[in-house]
């Protein structure tokens, strides 16, 4: 007998965290017309949604467990960028047909990450159609400590977490534009298909950082969102960036033979899901301690400056604050869902 919609939900998407009395923030989980969430005293809800479409955001033959992980990870990354703690999420899933082994693997990847971060699956919808995954996630945080995009100040340092460019490098390799050694492709593809949301970092930045954003569309593109929202400009210290842990070994190796492609991966790569944030100079020591506590590289790559009527919002500069000359062929445009 073919599996129907509600059998599918009961079999693969009934999350133990959503059961009554299990999760303090969930008053009523899936199975009713709405879920009921209760943020803690003095907290507000942080809400974000992301859609992943086959052929646009992922290869149709991606491993379903990896897709389940990434579908939730990119949403949790938005909570991280706001400094929020996860509460719950809802899932809308369109499937060409019900392929039980595929769904089982997808649900395993999805719920493993949900369990790791205490984020309960509390509802959603399923239907037949082209493969499409849409998740809406809910978190909580004190409103005064939210890491908003419009809070960057002239004089702030500019930081990025982790390393950049490996996801774009995997994408270029899978498209056949660049050939990677097998071990490097495995590492880079892991970053493309199984990003880790920096939730602990986001919460640790409360009270230290001013503004933050997660890097989904590329370093320069996402930095531009912060600069426009805050009404400021930035100087991106390219030599400092290239010398920092923000450039991982696989991208650094590429820079020796294809510097333009390596810089494209770092500056405009997308799919990194690291955090870009600004913080006052006085927070440097505290941020160094936070990085050590989390075992995470936090690289200082530039500074926020006052905006001017003339000149770009973000200037690429060298260590003397002179314009940095990029090699020919560097692409600086970030990901555009409609391009």
TrEMBL record:
Pathway given for this chain reads: Cofactor biosynthesis; thiamine diphosphate biosynthesis; thiamine diphosphate from thiamine phosphate: step 1/1
- Domain PurM-like N-terminal span(s) in chain numbering: 31-140
Q: Where does Mg(2+) 1 bind?
A: 49-50, 125
Indicate whether Magnesium appears among the record's keywords. yes
Sorted keywords for this record are: ATP-binding, Kinase, Magnesium, Metal-binding, Nucleotide-binding, Thiamine biosynthesis, Transferase
Pfam families from the UniProt entry:
AIRS (PF00586)
State the family named in the UniProt similarity comment for this chain. Belongs to the thiamine-monophosphate kinase family.
What is the recorded function of this protein according to its Swiss-Prot or TrEMBL entry?
A: Catalyzes the ATP-dependent phosphorylation of thiamine-monophosphate (TMP) to form thiamine-pyrophosphate (TPP), the active form of vitamin B1.
**NCBIfam families from the xrefs?**
thiL
Name of protein: Thiamine-monophosphate kinase
- Which organism is the protein's source? Serpentinimonas maccroryi
Gene giving rise to this polypeptide = thiL
